[in-house]
Amino acid sequence: MLSGAIPYNENFMPAELVCFEEKCRARFAITDILYNCPKCGGLLEAAYEPPEQSALMLKRMWRERRMSNTPLDQSGVWRYREFIPFLESYTCVVTLREGNTPLLESREAAQYGGLDRVVFKHQGFNPTGSFKDNGMTCGAAQAMRLGVGRVACVSTGNTSASMAAYASAAGLQPIIFIPHGNISYGKLAQALEYGARTLQVEANFDQILALVRQLADRLGIYLLNSINPFRIEGQKTIMTELMDQRDWRVPDWIVLPGGNLGNTSAFGKALREMQALGLIDRLPKLAVIQAEGSAPFYELMQRYQKQSRGKQECLKSVPHPETLATAIKIGDPVSWPKALHEVTTTGGVVEKVTEQEIADAKAIIGRSGIGCEPASAATLAGIRKLTAAGTIPADADVVAVLTGHVLKDPDYIYRYHTGELDAPDGKRLKSNFGNKPMVVPNDADAIARVLEN
Ligand code: F0G
């Protein structure tokens, strides 16, 4: 529980859950335990009355909170609490000081990506090393508010690491379901260390999600996957913090990897809401990048762009998604209707990249002294493709979101640099920017000879 927190939300605005489907828009109490609309099955989102404060007042208040020693203000999520006002009281908040992630520029990455400049918003600087912490502090707060004892998620690794940490910090029991043999050890290790009951299921992410949704209802466990609207609220603050750090100057493009598409949904909602509140004056374009072997959203977008007017396009799932970027190895992303709406609203694009492109882009980000996990590197690989195609001009103002920390998947790194990384189809990837360690004898002369060459 939060110590020294502000006990009551003096600015409480009525909040509701609303069906995302345009035709339905059914409304429910913010405390109803729902993941889909009971009327039409659509996705749900949190909706609020606009805050009392003007955009200028909000900006000033949020900036001043950076000087505060209050846990709530130190959180890069709760600092922006007027933007996510779903709680009546903040006593149920657990913060590990999530958010607060830096903007890092890399000249080498810019050059590789065909841009004059590129800035990375590095979500790997979060307490458990990924952007999931932004959402999880909100999901855990809602779980506490509802008084549930157990929380669960299915995950490709980062959600489970994050949920394990926040649930344990809150005194809830975390139960995680992961695809056996398909998540990196860094992430699995975190879940174990943070005390989650960890079930490795012999199925892929999409199959396990269907299973867990049944179990959640049957066993009365609160589900904290990104279908949970409160996770999305927390992830919105990645965009708020980004704009705050840029003194509210809107970039031309925001590039992010796409898996289950929760982040795409959150970013789009945040941008629309920030524009409606007068915090920003225009929308940046969203560019979502998927791995080639796991790209149902890319395929949907291709069909959508060719569709005859008025025809509804639906996502066709990929039954056996494949990619070494296991974080985004998802064939049936649940949030696709929201993500499609957000990408099209911003005039954005969806691109796909190969395993080799991801691996090389990742090495370039690493060489810049920044580093990230494989899924995150899809951003730079995508930028390189989009600049080559003329979609993103070289002088565009581009922010790429690196979603996970470099140490999440050390095995991948070692294999790439030593020329031993095999794609899911068995083909060996080229170690184009490899940096192989050398074995040397315990002999000063021999080592000096090596280093003089
Ligand atoms: N990057 C990383 C590092 C991730 O862990 C994920 C998703 C994504 C990108 C894709 O984000 O799903 O919002 O489109 N990981 C989830 C998990 C699915 O279980 O950790 P998305």
Order of strands side by side in the largest beta sheet?
Answer: 4-5-13-10-11-12
- Which structural class do the helices and strands define? alpha/beta
| Ions, cofactors and other bound molecules | ligand F0G
Low-pLDDT segments, ≥5 res: 1-7
Helix content: 25-40%
Oligomer: single chain
Radius of gyration: 22 Å
Chain-wise SSE layout:
Blueprint lengths: L14 E5 L7 E3 L14 E5 L6 H10 L6 H4 L28 E3 L1 H7 L5 E4 L9 H15 L3 E5 L3 H13 L2 E7 L5 H9 L3 E5 L3 H15 L2 E2 L5 H17 L7 E5 L4 H15 L8 E7 L4 H11 L29 H10 L3 E5 L1 H13 L6 H15 L9 E5 L7 H8 L26 H9 L1
Parallel strand pairs: 5-13, 6-7, 6-9, 7-8, 10-11, 10-13, 11-12
Antiparallel strand pairs: 1-2, 1-3, 4-5
Summarize the structure.
The chain is of the alpha/beta class.
Could you walk me through the main structural features you see in this protein, from its secondary elements to its overall organization?
By secondary structure, this protein is an alpha/beta fold. It has helices spanning 55-64, 71-74, 107-113, 132-146, 158-170, 185-193, 205-219, 229-245, 262-276, 296-306, 336-345, 355-367, 374-388, 410-417, 444-452; strands at residues 15-19, 27-29, 44-48, 103-105, 119-122, 150-154, 173-179, 197-201, 222-223, 253-257, 285-291, 349-353, 398-402. A 6-stranded mixed beta sheet has the order 4-5-13-10-11-12, with helices on both faces. Helix 5 (158-170) packs parallel to helix 6. Bound molecules: ligand F0G. Residues 130, 132, 155-159, 226, 257-264, 327-328, 373, 375-376, 403-404 line the site of ligand F0G.
